[in-house]
């Protein structure tokens, strides 16, 4: 294991205690914690079922939102925010501290004839695109080379940024503006026109980069050059399908040719997962029994090799009365942060807490969320707190990081003892509440575990 020592700066809050301090002798405490392999849902990772679902399992902390352009902008310049937010329960999920995976889609095949771009846009285009009825389903593939489509797309993205881009609720945005289901491919074998070259297709990427989506991270279906240049994450909508996933992993490892445009525009991104999330959904081409029973170990291995953080909206299900496969796959996703050791020293001149952080998961924690120490009295009231200046994103799987932080004198009484329990929490800026569970044995269900 690699080991790094970080000396954290402090934000101390001790006001109102009215304390006086006497001379104290040096004291010290040390504690070790055991790792817990218990599978629990956790913030910003795991399964992401549809946000429209009324009932979710208790381990779900992400929801999946997809919006078609026809839903978003039924009339030119008029966006139907209220219907989308109500149907996808934005207020509910925000209040419950859940975050969203988001995808904006221009072509979603179904079993009925329809189109997913607005009528007003379709009517304004000289050559709007192609209707289809194929093995994928029925729908309409827009003409992605059309200048007006690209221009209005940019305006739609800007409007979404102004409405939804500020509080981090849309934590992961899958850039799905191109192709069937937003997967960056069209069924040309069924007679649909080919996609334009990548230089034009990037017009469905750059509007997102130029808009203000604070707290969001972008993911692309393939490791395109622009994804590598911008440090994006990636998503695989065929998770669990061995042949397809291995091909996807080969793109990530070696780059190569984008078969939709016959261009060498795929870049090697083998370390992308270290700084940006890997997502997607379980394949619908294989039965849930095959994925979670017959080929469970293969499914798990593919998810781990991908360094997957989330899967949805196609998520694992109960199979033959058992949730075993669901739970094992959940345990293979995302981060598993924990504290293995903690020490506390106190003297007249200085007081310090040292925490040894570890990550037993498959991926980092991808957000720079605040880490806070709180002093809690016997009545459960927080009487002092401080923020540790550390970056959780730096704790990679199988690495160890030691964080040393000075404590203010107000945490101690005249005898050098803590005035209460010292707790730790990782704060979600959307809710300003503790949100992350650490894999510490006996405290794995707590978002504010006790250190001392």
Protein architecture, described:
The chain is an alpha/beta fold. It has helices at residues 69-72, 81-87, 90-95, 119-124, 147-164, 198-201, 206-210, 225-229, 242-254, 288-294, 296-305, 324-331; strands at 3-8, 10-13, 27-32, 46-47, 62-68, 99-105, 129-134, 137-142, 170-174, 217-220, 233-239, 256-258, 263-266, 278-282, 310-311, 337-346, 351-359, 370-376, 382-388, 400-406, 421-428, 433-434. It folds into two domains: 3-38 and 336-434; 46-331, TIM Barrel. The protein is built from twelve helices and 22 strands. The strands form six sheets. A six-stranded parallel beta sheet has the order 5-6-9-10-11-14. The protein has a five-stranded mixed beta sheet with strand order 1-20-17-16-3, with no helix packed on it. A hairpin with a 5-residue loop joins strand 18 and strand 19. It is elongated and about 80 Å long. InterPro entries: DUF4832 (IPR032267), GH (IPR017853). This is DUF4832 domain-containing protein. Pfam families: DUF4832 (PF16116).
Number of domains: 2
The largest β sheet comes out as: 6 strands, parallel
Based on secondary structure, the structural category is alpha/beta
Terminal CA distance = 26 Å
Uncertain segments: 1-12, 16-24
Number of strands: 22
What CATH calls the topology of the largest domain is TIM Barrel
The CATH level-2 architecture of the largest domain is identified as Alpha-Beta Barrel
Helix content: 10-25%
Work out the oligomeric state of the chains in this entry. single chain
Based on CA atoms alone, the radius of gyration comes out at 25 Å
| Number of distinct helices | 12
- β content, as a range? 25-35%
Placed side by side, the strands forming the largest sheet appear as 5-6-9-10-11-14
Please identify the top-level CATH class of the largest domain: Alpha Beta
Give the integer mean of the pLDDT values: 94
What best-fitting shape do the alpha-carbon axes yield? elongated
